[in-house]
Each structure stands twice: as structure tokens, then as C-alpha cells.
What we know:
- By secondary structure, the protein is an alpha+beta fold.
- It is 43% helix and 22% strand.
Amino acid sequence: MKKSAFLFLILSLLFANLAFLSPSAPALEITNNEVRLDFPDTITFSASFESEVPITAVELEYGVDALTCGTVIAKAFPQFEPSTSVDVEWTWEMKQSGSLPPGATLWWQWRYADESGAERVSEKKTITWLDSEHDWQTLTSGHLNLHWYEGNQAFAEDLLGTAEEGLALLEEDAGLVPDYPIHFYIYGDTEDMKDAILYEPTWTGGLAYPGNSIVIIGISGNGDLEWGRDTVKHELTHIVVGHLTFSCLGDVPTWLNEGLAVYNEGELDQNSARQLQDAIDNDELFPLRTLNGGFSEDSIKAHLSYSQSYSVVKYMIEEYGHEKLSAVLVALRDGTTIDAALAEAYGFDIDGLEAEWRGAIHAQSQQVSAQPTAQATPTFVPTYIPYAGESLLVTPTPFDIPTAMPPNEEISTSSSEEDGNFWLIMGIMCCCGSFLFIIFGVVIFFLVKKSKKGAGNAKI
């Protein structure tokens, strides 16, 4: 027993001496770790580093809290000269990458090392991407958070109550219940809202960012309150549907997404209803497949696209119930195509849905082409370029209300196949020509070489 205790004491002293004699890693510290916001254009990260030996590597890791298909970490490598004292700075230019939604949570940390091989990672810090120009206030109810700076308490309570009504309708109409925080940022008017973002459509009055659970709307308390209530419900629908259907496998057609959002607002306003009826009477409805993507930059065509999408979704819910529609959304999340999702839930594809819907609203039937139908006018739904490889899809809501109908459009699909065949033939001919030219050159080379060889032999 005594020998064991003595041996344990000797080993303890030995390890203590080894620990004392072994060289410790040199001190490596970070100070002045901060960010500077120049909203909405730039974010500048800066930090200072101190070490007993020269610092040789510094990199910035950053990102935004949002729905992603995997771990997303962006990196930046600020320029500096190795030294025991280093100051670094790096600026994120929003005009190059596309801006973040106001209210987004940004995180960052520094990874740095010195020439001894010692490496450190700073603590992760966060900041909210939001202007400091306005005196923001907040009201909260359950998962809903409403931020505003212009208008009294009653104004904010009115909009928050509208959002609560919108959630109740979503549960009733589509069986959708969110379990995550949703933030509304209410700007004093649409101009203030547009000043807070980059690259928005000219007719935008509100934007939903499902990946960030953020809605921004420009609402004036003087004359826009009724429109603002509808827009709160509209954008709330995009957030909830976007969360339910978030996937890296598929996407939700715009007509379905926007149709649900407008349906959640309630009945169409008088102008929109008249515009839709005129389009029905004059056979100016868009083929439903052309509304799978974004809506037109032209405000009149965009408004008709919203109203038509509303009418289709209204027919689906009121004719078949919300359970089938919920099944379609879940199928889309799992990567099923819209045609397959509709067929599984309803027994028809997009063309079958359009045929039924047109019959129900007494519109002329749509001639279905064997080829996919192209959209005549390029469409625009703003997608902000990722901070680290991920697209942030946003859905805009129009502010102005149209009073005129769009002109008739001719939608052509026949030339695309012919153009493809033409260029395929031309490519094959070019390849064959190049191959024959190479063979011809090789033959000429050997003939010339042989001729020179023969001439040389004759001379000898």
C-alpha cells in the first residue's frame, strides 16, 4: 500500500514538472471586434489582433439566420501584413450581392492564427440589419411581432389584430399553423420601404421573406390602412406557406402561392374584380401554366395575374376543401412536380384544373399545346443573390390598383423547337467540318514530308 502511494506521488510530480517545463501557446487576443452598418448599402466588419509572435492568418466567417438546405457559412479574407499587432477590415457591398431584408439577424466570428500554429476562433456575435434612422417600437402577440415607427398605438394594434385574423383564416382555409416567430416591419410609406431595400419592382408595396420569417410593408396611417390590412394578411400567407413548403427539392408555382395570399385577404376589391371579369369576357386570361413563374413587371398585367390566381385557388378550396390543397403543398415540399401533386390530390394536372376552373367561371376553354407554353412577357420576382450560395426568394405585393385591362397578347411556342433543331444541325456540321479539315492537314503534312525525303535521296 505504501509502495503504491509512493509511486503515485512520484508520477504526479513528474507530470507536474513536464507540464511546467512544456512551452505554453503564445497569447493571442482580439479587440475592437465590431460591425458598422451603412444601411442599406454596406456592412463593415473590423477587429484588432495582438500576439507575442506574428499573426499570419485572419479570416471572417459570417451568415444570416434563415432557412437553408444545410450549414451555410460565408468567408472573407481581409488583406493585412503579418505582424504581432494587426488591424483588419472588410466591407460587404449590398449593391453587388443584393440586400438583406430589414430585420434580418446577421452573425459573424473571426478565425485567426499566428506563425507558431496557434489558432483561435472568436465568440459568435450577432446584429440586426436595420436602419437607425427611425425610432422603432414593437408589439407582440404569440408568434407575431409588429415593429413600427410612425402612427399611434391604436394603428399598430389594428395591424397586429389583422395579422391574428390572418393566422386564424390560414388555419381554417388551409390547415396551416406556424410555430415560429414572424416579424412585420411597417414603414411609414412605400417610399420609406423602397429606400430600405435594393432592386425591388417599381410597383412593390410589400415584401415577404419566408426564409427569414420577415415581412416589410409601407403603410401610411392616413390613407393606406385598409390596403395595409389586406397586405398584412397577404404577406403573412407567403411566410406560412413558404415555411411549410421550404425544400431544396422543389418549388411552389407562383399562381398557387399568390392565389392563397390574395384569398386570405378576403374578396377581391371592386377594381380587381372588374378587371378579372373583363378578362373573362374578352378571353384575355393568361394560360395557367404561364403563371407558374413570376408575374410581369408591368403593374396592370401583374394585377390581373394576382386576381386570376385568386380565382383559381378560390375554386380549389370552395369546390374541394382545404385538405386536398394542403396535400398539394406537402407534396411540393417533398419534391413532387405541380402536375403530379395535383393528380395525386385531385385527379387532374394543371391543364385539367384550368379546364374545370374556366368552366366554373364561364370563360372560354384554353387550347392546350403539346409543347410547354412560354410566357410572352418576361416576368420578375426579385431573388436576392446569396451571401454564401443560397437564393433568398421574396414575394412582392403591388401597391397601386389598376383600372385598365392589358392588351391582347400573342403567345408563340412554335419557333423554339425549330430554332433548337437548326442550331443542333449547324453544330454537327461544324464538328464534321473541323474533323475533315484536321484529317486533310495531316495527309498534306505526310505527303510533303515524303516528297522532301525522296528529293534528299535523289541528291545523294
